[in-house]
Amino acid sequence: MTPLPVRAVTTLIAGAALCATTATTASASAAQDAERHAPKIVTAWARAWNGTDPRALGGLFTSDGTYTDTAIGLTFHGRQEISGWKARADSLIDNVHVTVRAAHRNGDRITVEALYSGHLKGAPRPFAVPMTTLLALDKRHCRISSDQDHYSLATVLTQSGLPTDWTPPAR
């Protein structure tokens, strides 16, 4: 086998680096596009999760809205409980963040594909897992009547370096 000339090797390395940079940039750009083109309620929902005011999340729901975290098997009812859930999440997870990757609307239903990430307090490592959220909207399509989050708690714990039977500390 004949060795490649130095110029060819340099070109191949530069091409590979460009492809890697382009893929990373394209991925970040796709996430920004998804958030930009998502329904307003989805953008507000992600902003509320990424913010520090728990009432911002609760305020997106109807007064009798429900929020179900299927990974932990809990459902919260009404704006106050939903705001309380966001506050609890913030107390357990540093840098909790939702990145919308895609949102698909069908009438009063929206499916959100996202990346859910953060760092469980006391865990050796952060986590970043895929999440699908099903939103049902009120008749005017301006408030959430139901939210169901689907992600793998086992994957969150494994990525975090915690045992799969880990439970958060009591309040």
Can you describe what's shown?
- With 171 residues, this protein is α+β, with helices and mostly antiparallel strands.
- It has 5 helices and 6 strands; from the N terminus they run H-H-H-E-E-H-E-E-E-E-H.
- The chain has helices spanning 6-37, 40-50, 54-58, 78-92, 153-160, and strands spanning 61-69, 74-77, 93-106, 109-120, 127-137, 144-150.
- It has a 6-stranded mixed β-sheet.
- A hairpin with a 4-residue loop joins strand 1 (61-69) and strand 2 (74-77).
- The protein is globular.
- The relative contact order is 0.14.
Task: Give short descriptive properties of this protein.
171 residues, 6-stranded mixed β-sheet, 33% strand
List the helices and strands and how they pair.
Blueprint: H1 6-37, H2 40-50, H3 54-58, E1 61-69, E2 74-77, H4 78-92, E3 93-106, E4 109-120, E5 127-137, E6 144-150, H5 153-160
Parallel strand pairs: 1-6
Antiparallel strand pairs: 1-2, 3-4, 4-5, 5-6
Rg from C-alpha positions? 20 Å
Number of strands: 6
Main sheet specs = 6 strands, mixed
The parts where pLDDT drops under 50 for at least 5 residues are 8-22, 24-31
Q: What is the arithmetic mean of pLDDT?
A: 86
Strand order of the largest sheet: 2-1-6-5-4-3
Shape: globular
- Total of helices: 5
The H-and-E topology, N to C, reads as HHHEEHEEEEH
Strand content: 25-35%
Instruction: Classify the helix fraction into a percent range.
Output: 40-55%
Going by helix content, strand content and strand pairing, the class is alpha+beta
**First and last CA, distance:** 67 Å
